[in-house]
Amino acid sequence: MYKHDTDLHEKRLSKSNKLRKYGSAYKSYIRKNGKIQKSPRKQRDTPENVIIKTIDSKPKKKILNPYQKFVKSESRKDVYKDIPGKERLTKIAIEWKSHKKL
Question: What are the extents of the domains in the chain?
Fold first, then answer.
């Protein structure tokens, strides 16, 4: 190993060792100078804030593409009411193909 690497390793302190070494100096500084000003922190999202955000913010309406509009209008028809979902969508897809060719 190089001498430089060993010097860095020896100088490196763990968090607990740093606290032991500098803790008393930090406490005496606070006693002499009063409180230390902390930087402003971002407010956490408390459950009350989250509820207010969800009530206040309305979801943006998604613009439907032509296929989605077609499926929406077709699925309302009485022809497809009693058919299960998977079969209904396959029949609507077949209708879309014929509708698209026009």
Answer: 66-101
